[in-house]
Amino acid sequence: PTPSPAEGGGAAVGAEDEDEEEERGFHSYGRTRYWDTRYAKDATVFDWYQRYGGGIRDVVRREVARDMSILELGCGVSRFGQDMVDDGYERYTAVDVSKVAIEAMRKRSAAIDFRRANVLALPFPDETFDVAI
C-alpha cells in the first residue's frame, strides 16, 4: 500500500511506474522510496545546498533571533541543523520524509527534535514555529 502524504507518500504511483522512471534515467526525488534507498546506501553527512557557515550563517544571524522556534524542512543527513544549534539556536526541529535519514540523524544529535514528516502534510499546529528553513 502507498503511504498517505502524512506518512511520506505522494500521489498514488505503482512500483512499476517508479521502476520505469528510474530505468529511463529519471530520479524520483518526490518518492519516499528513493530517499530511503539513497540514505540506506550512504548516510554520510551531506549538505545539499551549502554548509551553514558558508554564507548562510550571516543571513540567519541577521534575520533569526536565537530564541525563535525553527523548523528545518527536508533535513536529510545534513549537518545544517547541528551547526545552527552549535551557534546558539536551541529550539530546533527538523523533518524529512525519509525514515532512514531521520533514524541516522537521531543517532547524531540529541539536541534536535527530528521527526519523520512530509512537508506537504506537517503534523504541527499552525504557528508552532517562528521560522522555516
Notes on the structure:
The chain has 133 residues and is α/β, with parallel strands linked by helices. It is 36% helix and 11% strand. The chain contains five helices and four strands, in the order H-H-H-E-H-E-H-E-E. It has a four-stranded parallel β-sheet, with helices on one face. Strand 1, helix 4 (80-86) and strand 2 (92-96) form a beta-alpha-beta unit. The radius of gyration is 16 Å and the shape is globular. 23% of the residues are buried. The model is unreliable at 1-15 (pLDDT under 50).
What is this structure's SSE topology?
Blueprint: H1 15-23, H2 32-41, H3 52-63, E1 70-73, H4 80-86, E2 92-96, H5 99-108, E3 113-116, E4 131-132
Parallel strand pairs: 1-2, 1-4, 2-3
Looking at this protein, list some descriptive labels.
alpha/beta, 5 helices
Count of individual beta strands: 4
Helix content estimate: 25-40%
Strand line-up of the largest beta sheet: 3-2-1-4
Radius of gyration: 16 Å
How would the global form be characterised? globular
Weakly predicted, low-confidence segments:
1-15
User: Whole-number average pLDDT?
Assistant: 81
Structural class: alpha/beta
Strand content: 5-15%
What's the N-to-C terminus distance? 31 Å
Describe the largest sheet.
4 strands, parallel
The DSSP helix count reads 5
